[in-house]
Request: fold
Amino acid sequence: MLTVLGFVMIATFLVLIMMRKMSPIAALVLIPALFCVFVGQGAQLGDYVLEGVGKLAPTAAMLMFAIVYFGVMIDVGLFDPIVRGILRFCKADPLRVVVGTAVLAAIVSLDGDGSTTFMITVSAMYPLYKRLGMSLVVMTGVAATANGVMNTLPWGGPTARAATALKLDAADIFVPMIPALGVGLLFVFVLAYVLGLRERKRVGYLSLDEILEPETETVLVKAGGGSDTPKASGGSGDAPGQPAEGEGFQGLDPNRPTLRPRLYWFNAGLTVALLAAMILELLPIPVLFLLGAALALTVNYPKMADQKARIAAHADNVLNVAGMVFAAAVFTGVLTGTGMVKHMADWLVGAIPEGMGPHMALVTGLLSLPLTYFMSNDGFYFGVLPVLAEAGAAHGVSPLEIARASLVGQALHMSSPLVPAVYVLVGMAKVEFGDHTRFTVKWAALTSLVVLAAGMLFGII
Reply:
């Protein structure tokens, strides 16, 4: 019964948010609360929620102060040269903009933190998508999928979890997977190229001079047939996540009062030091961002009134993301506390035919897609993976192969409603989570299958 209710609860949540019948926050809270009552454990709901909140509180704190920190860095102009450089590389061509999004997200993902990746990527690319009238779900989908492939880096989380759960060396898992992951990343770039072509045909492209014109002016969009068609620069808003007409293009405003050009190298050095400290794990990430945000505010805006103004300017993003994380704590708390996750995992493992034993690596790779989407990485790698590895060992399949196969679902995992970083992505991009899910899931799943196929072709899995 718990198995069925678990699947029904997840399906209900996804359907309601994708059909925009409920907001993600309301769905994350009310649906699990209702199902907790259905399974006869309503009296324990408070304990489950508090346990879930306790586990996600450090993540929420990290996201809150990370948003303030990177928000301040955007305000002071740290990323303006990056935006201008990308703009000149892209030449206001939607195809290059989408490919540039994938490349930028992949490069920034080297720090191993999805939230940081999305903040920097959206900060740099959002103004271009807005000004060209491009669909913002293309940006979020490409960024999330590229980050999902790169999330398999040993310091990114999944590889370390797999190594810990199966008592293996992380390098032995990751290094042989590099060719397959490289193919997956190449596929993301090809996907970005195809989506970029589609966007180019839909919105045309502008010249660099036109992009730099004030937002209030009407510009000419070069349509696919070569004719000049007047169009407001904000776009028509007919595509999911696309900006409405008249919205401002703020990213390249060289005269905004929050700029601090004399402190540029201080801010750049502080950001590099912060990212280096994260990679070296000198302090917990929430503590690093708390210190970084406090230092950035104090140095760039010594006056208390200015500091309050900057915090207020980013309060909307902070509230949305933190609220979403704590709402997700209700969902994960009920899933775990009621035993739904365990019963669902046991059912899936038990449903594997006996004849598939010698192919447990392939089975693990396929199961990693739905399981890492519907479960946290901790739940999958520490709860399910050891069972899969034990079943594989009984048929002579190496635990290393099982561990490598378990990584292929990460491209899809990064768009899971249980991943806090995805709320940073959709929140900063002002995209509905349901729109992002509807657009991204199919491409992310296909990317994961490409990684799995490449791993099998190269004899890695």
Notes: The CA atoms of residues 6 and 336 lie 10 Å apart. The mean pLDDT is 82.
